[in-house]
Amino acid sequence: MSFYRHLFLCSASGKSTISVEPWSAALYCHARCFGFSSLEEAAAERRRRKRQLRIEPPTRRDSGAIRPARDPNAARLPDSTASLVGPRLSLHNRIQTLIRAGNLDAASAQARHALFSPIRPTVFTCNAVMSSILRARRFDDVFALFHFFFSQQNIIPNIVSHNILISAHCDAGQVDKALLVYRQILLTAPFPASIFTYRYLTKGLVDSGRIADAVSLLREMINRGHSTDALVYDTIIAGFIHLNNMEMAIEFFNELREQCPVYDGVVHATLMEGYWKLGMDKEAMDCYQSLLDLRFRMHPATCNVLLETLLKHGKAADAQNLFDQMLDEHKPPVFMGINADTYNIMINHCFKEGKFAEAIEVFHSTGVKPLPKDIARYKFIIEKLCANGLVEDAVKLFDELLSQSLEPDAATYSFFADAYFSDDDDRIEDAVVFFYKMVSGGEAALKAAGAFCHQILNGLVNSGCMSQAMDVFGKMKEAGMTPNAANYEVLIAGLCKEGNLDGARALFEEMMKCGFLAGLELQSFISESFQRAGRGQEISFLSASSTPSQATSAHWVAGEVVPQTTSGQQVAGRVFGPSPDLQAVA
Question: What is the pLDDT at residue 563?
Fold first, then answer.
């Protein structure tokens, strides 16, 4: 660097004061001249060159460019997942919430009404509504909704929509109509049939006894370029086993193994059922062992079918080994090796065998990574324990449920109600202890306990324990529960029977303030009680001063208390509770 600077100064002055000896050519070749005065200038030049290498976007759009006209005869495509955003996604989530709550009619109504609003539902929302109604086996409603959504309202169906319709036709025994839908997909739809289309059609054909048509459909599926599906083969194999044609079943099984090296192990469960049907126990277990030798990583749905098959035919040891293997392979999120149905299958088997302690151990058994316990798993084992008289163990699991911040539903309390208030064993004291345990569990434990609390009040009143019943009633209000008309009626009738007319009057006034109107039977019972005590005018004055336009009365329908308005305005919601027997109370 200094050498070249010295040369530059000499050339600028016009004379050279230093005699410079010539350097070798190699030195000149390896020397590098810096073209920038600073590192900042070099970096700026590098950035400039990078900008030049980029493809610059157009600075303006040619608005006069002619766009190709859309073909009016071109098939319209269904909604993509990109359309499920914003308000349409919010609508979809609201409808899904109604579906999960089991309110299918409200979900269907909201989806249909949304079609006449600015926020129209997507095809995914329509499919969710139809599939939920299909699971409820309301086939006529599925057909009507499909016609309404996709024919009348011009929503473009996707392949899932057609599969729901095909499945509904097959389950309703209308296989020919399902085949017509399939042919229409092939002719007019802008998408091909999916593998689920062939699964539903094959099952419908086999169930209707048309095994030859099912085989033809299998060949058509393969000829159309679909991959070999183990569940389609499984349906056909099960059809041949049902016809006692084990040779054809084995032939199709061998064909599946040739065309698909890795397949669903549920096919082995079907073959095992066929062998056991013929009394061939050794061949059935050899078939099961051949599946284990393949070392497939099987999903829980497949393993659950194998578990049920083994337990059904007395192979409890093999089922336990498979269950332990599923626990070891359960390593979420890499692989889900077990689900709630797996536990329910093993627990149900333990209860059938009378092994109650072992059932509780299975419920708590885990592998390397545990499967989180949800309310459905607790409900299943609590129902089994209560049905077998093991209420104490059920209460322990209920405490564990509350400790994990899970909210019991009405069905959970109905199991305890059946156990505590059965006809042959009325355990009202244990029910009261359980009630106080619920109160200590917080508001979440009492959200769905209305019917159970009413049974406690009814049992205490019938037993003559009015003071304890009033304490329970007070605890209900302290815990945030809103008493219903049935609660008031039972307590008022019990107080009148006991002769505590002042307490009955105070409770009757409170009932009127809460907007409830006593039924005719209770009104006549109260009037008779007060008239016998010479205080008939008091209750008449209270009844006359009540406001019927805002009050509701309890209407008994099949053990449910449905608040009804006396003025014709609608009362939302239901207050569940069994009907109080006023004659028994009196």
Answer: 40
Token pair 């600015």 is at which residue?
A: 118
Burial status of residue 234 (CB atoms within 10 A of its CB: 0-12, 13-18, 19 or more) = buried
Average pLDDT, rounded, for the chain: 82
Using a pLDDT cut of 90, give the percent of the chain over it. 46
Phi and psi of 565, rounded to 5°? -80, 145
Among 194, 206, 264, 266, CA closest to 236: 206
User: What CA–CA distance (Å, rounded) separates 153 from 83?
Assistant: 17
Residue 123 three-state SS: helix
Handedness of CA 74, 75, 79, 82 (dihedral sign): negative
Listed residue (243, 241, 194) closest to 253, CA to CA: 241
pLDDT digits (tens, 9 = 90+) for 88-123: 999 999 999 999 878 899 999 999 999 999 999 999
**How many other C-beta atoms are found inside a 10 Å radius of the C-beta of residue 116?**
8
Work out whether strand 560-565 and strand 516-517 pair parallel, antiparallel, or are unpaired. Answer: unpaired
**Phi, psi values for residue 557, rounded to 5°:** -135, 105
543, two tokens: 């009844």
What is the arithmetic mean of pLDDT over 354-383?
92
For residue 77, the 8-state DSSP code is P
**Cα–Cα distance, 226 to 204 (Å, whole number):** 19
Q: Which of 416, 407, 487 is nearest to 446 (CA)?
A: 407
pLDDT recorded at residue 27: 44
pTM score of the predicted model: 0.69
Residues forming beta bridges with residue 555, ordered by sequence position = 562
Report residue 126 CA to chain centroid gap: 17
Pair 207, 169: CB distance under 8 Å: no
Q: Give the tens place of pLDDT for each residue, 279-329.
A: 999 999 999 999 999 988 899 999 999 999 999 999 999 999 999 999 999
Contact 286, 315 (CB under 8 A): no
CA distance 57 to 546: 77
Do residues 307 and 323 touch, judged by C-beta distance below 8 A?
Answer: yes
Take residue 518 and report the two structure tokens written for it: 């006593």
CA distances from 567 to 243, 440, 549 (A): 64, 39, 5
pLDDT at 195 over 90: yes
Measured CA distances, 262 to 195, 254, 267, 291, 340 (Å) = 17, 13, 12, 11, 26
Find where tokens 């050279």 sit.
16
Cα–Cα distances (Å) from 210 to 57, 207, 236, in that order, read: 62, 8, 10
Out of 175-184, 253-262, 264-273, 563-572, which region has the weakest mean confidence (pLDDT)? 563-572
What gap in Å lies between CA 460 and CA 497, rounded to an integer? 13
- The CA distances from residue 312 to 244, 351, 408, in Å, are 20, 14, 32
Is 399:439 a contact under the CB 8 Å cutoff?
A: no
